[in-house]
């Protein structure tokens, strides 16, 4: 029902009567608690690390366990549906979709936004995506939403910028049969650009898509002995993704001149 970058989330939190914090690290939980009226809204904190429970102050309930286990238990315990709750859920969902549509419209006029929107449309449900960088974080989390569990990898709040390429390589090693993409800003990729040589040498076939500051990423990829492509429009992106998949090696798609 919400995303930290969208305007509808504060309203949804303001109208809630209970907030369940699940699948969130402590820093995310702390940020969320700053947005809710603790005198009116009940809070349930969860964590796979029991020692963390209560670390942010008093809560109405605390549950230790991983996100999947907690959700399964809660799903079994929830019975019935009130008309008020159903209306509230529909309203929140409607406002979220309206806010997201505004972002899509806004993306059409911006290079990184337009490129990321096109990438999101081109991705399949089975694709895995690592997101790294300011532009990538904002547009990627909104326009490349996860279609399946455990398919998006990022540092919440952009902590540790520059991890994108190394993380994507690790994901590919762990899940070699899946297509793994990294969406990185130019500045983020420059942090560990030398790992392109590692990817070539070790045969780690990740596809790196770069947005943001204009840079000759096609030339950089080719200098490392990898496949490099430049896409400035949707059709070129589709061709580049297909060729990258057929290359059998790591590849870089330069989207810094997209649109």
Question: Could you characterize the architecture of this molecule?
Answer:
With 259 residues, this protein is of the alpha/beta class. The chain is built from eleven helices and nine strands. A six-stranded parallel beta sheet has the order 5-4-6-7-9-8, with helices on both faces. α1 packs antiparallel against α4 (83-107) and α5 (111-122) packs across α6 (134-143). The longest helix is centred in the middle third of the chain and has 25 residues, at 83-107. The model has no long low-confidence stretch (mean pLDDT 92).
From the spread of the alpha carbons, the general shape counts as globular
Low-confidence stretches: none
Compressed to H and E, one letter per element, the order equals HEHEEHHHEHEHEHHEHEHE
Report strand order across the widest sheet: 5-4-6-7-9-8
By DSSP, the count of extended strands is 9
Mean pLDDT: 92
Characterize the main sheet.
6 strands, parallel
The number of helical segments is 11
Q: What radius of gyration results from the CA coordinates?
A: 20 Å
In helices, the fraction of residues equals 40-55%
- The N- to C-terminal Cα distance equals 30 Å
Share in β-strands: 15-25%
Helix-strand makeup class: alpha/beta
């Amino acid at each position: 029902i919400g995303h930290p970058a969208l305007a509808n989330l504060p309203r949804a939190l303001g109208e809630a009567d209970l907030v369940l914090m699940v699948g969130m690290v402590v820093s995310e939980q702390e940020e969320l608690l700053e947005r809710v009226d603790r005198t009116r809204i009940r809070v349930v904190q969860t964590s796979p690390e029991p020692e963390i429970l209560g670390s942010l102050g008093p809560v109405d309930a605390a549950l230790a366990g991983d996100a999947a286990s907690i959700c399964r238990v809660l799903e079994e315990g929830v019975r019935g549906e009130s008309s008020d709750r159903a209306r509230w859920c529909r309203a929140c969902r409607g406002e979220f979709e309206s806010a997201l549509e505004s972002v899509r419209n806004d993306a059409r006029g911006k290079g990184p936004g337009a490129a990321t929107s096109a990438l999101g449309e081109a991705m399949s449900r089975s694709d895995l995506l690592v997101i790294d960088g300011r532009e990538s974080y904002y547009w990627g989390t909104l326009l490349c939403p996860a279609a399946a569990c455990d398919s998006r990898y990022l540092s919440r709040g952009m902590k540790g910028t520059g991890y994108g390429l190394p993380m994507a390589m690790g994901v590919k090693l762990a899940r070699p049969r899946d297509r793994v993409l990294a969406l990185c800003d130019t500045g983020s990729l420059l942090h560990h650009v030398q790992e392109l040589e590692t990817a070539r040498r070790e045969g780690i076939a990740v596809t790196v898509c770069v947005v943001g500051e204009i840079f000759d990423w096609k030339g950089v990829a080719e200098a490392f002995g990898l496949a490099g492509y430049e896409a400035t429009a949707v059709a070129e992106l589709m061709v580049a993704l297909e060729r990258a998949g057929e290359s059998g090696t790591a590849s870089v798609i330069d989207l810094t001149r997209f649109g």
